[in-house]
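A further point concerns the way the authors explain their paired sequence and structure data. Each protein is reduced to its one-letter sequence and a matching series of backbone shape codes. An entry of this sort, consisting of the sequence and the corresponding backbone structure tokens, reads as follows:
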Amino acid sequence: MHTHFDWYGYGNDSFKRRKPHLDKLFRHFDLLSDRAKSLTVNFQIWITILDNDSASDALFLHTPNPNQNNFPWKISGLSETSTLTNQRLIDYINNLVGYEKRYGNANEVYCMLYKKNIGITVG
């Protein structure tokens, strides 16, 4: 399951328009993390933020699926060194506390964020 917080990409016009969507995304990460702790199955929870595509910013909750063998989800080739070019987004991410931050590139550079000790680690 995943959800986007800026379906129409309003944040692509300016960071001023993107920031409220990011703020909401991170608030929901905390809410979902608290609720997921009561799950009776293993889970993973993470955020993916694309450098310049606000509509693709998303919050993910991943659990075992009887139809696919893709749990736990692992993404290889991620770096602890930022690959982002969007300076306002870099500043926003750098000011986040308590998140593990990993960076990659899949047609556009992105940042994946999660917290240790909440579900199974993604990165």
In short: Residues 15-36 form the longest helix (22 residues). The radius of gyration is 14 Å. The chain has a mean pLDDT of 91. The beta strands are 2-4, 44-50, 58-62, 100-105, 109-114.
